[in-house]
Amino acid sequence: MAIREILQAGNPVLRKKAKLVTEIDDRIITLLDDMLETMRAADGCGLAANQVGVLRRVVVIEVEDELFELINPEIVSTEGTQEEVEGCLSNPGIAGYVARPQKVVVRAYDRKGDLYEYTGEGLIARAFCHEIDHLDGILFTDKMIREASLDGEE
Questions:
Q1: 49 within some domain
Q2: Which H helix or E strand runs over 71?
Q3: Residue 131 appears among annotated catalytic residues
Q4: pTM across the whole model
Q5: Ramachandran sector of residue 64 (left: φ over 0; alpha: ψ -120 to 50; beta: rest)
Q6: In a domain? residue 67
Q7: Is the CB of residue 126 less than 8 Å from the CB of residue 64?
Q8: pLDDT in tens, 97-126
Q9: CATH no. for residue 87?
Q10: How many separate domains does the chain show?
């Protein structure tokens, strides 16, 4: 495993749509492992492959002691709305309020190639949407309603 460089806002790779993974091989497994190590080292809760310069539909999320490794994730359904503060490893120093679904069902493959449906609510739903947006070249700042203070003051 290796810690990879996290691309920063302004890098054109972050605006490109990631391609489907057609085969889960050793390169994809290594990518998953590296992304997890990179995300943890940066104290993040999610990371999309294009944030480390790889244009493939791969995401890792670790929220509330639950790890999700998602290959070719797609949102199947959403329910409700929540408006909370988000940040991003590709936009350090910026936080803002973003409206997201309260509940999300995501279909994705795992590292073994098995297809699963994952249901997330609250922060997990937010992380699913945030990271899948990355795969489509969308940053949270594109959807930001208003900026939030990083020190907790409005």
A1: yes
A2: strand 66-79
A3: yes
A4: 0.94
A5: left
A6: yes
A7: no
A8: 999 999 999 999 999 999 999 999 999 999
A9: 3.90.45.10
A10: 1
- Structural domain that includes position 97: 12-148
Q: How far is CA 35 from CA 39, 59, 154, in A?
A: 6, 8, 33
Assigned domain for 104 exists: yes
Q: CB neighbours of 135 closer than 8 A, spacing ≥ 6?
A: 17, 18, 48, 49, 50, 57, 59, 73
The C-alpha atoms of residue 95 and residue 88 are separated, in whole angstroms, by: 8
**What is the DSSP code (8-state) at residue 13?**
G
* One-letter identity of residue 100: R
Give domain status of residue 41, yes or no: yes
Which residue out of 131, 147, 153, 154 is catalytically annotated? 131
- The set of residues, in sequence order, having a beta carbon less than 8 Å from that of 27 and lying 6+ positions away, is none
Structure tokens, 96: 């803002």
Pairing of strands 103-109, 115-121: antiparallel
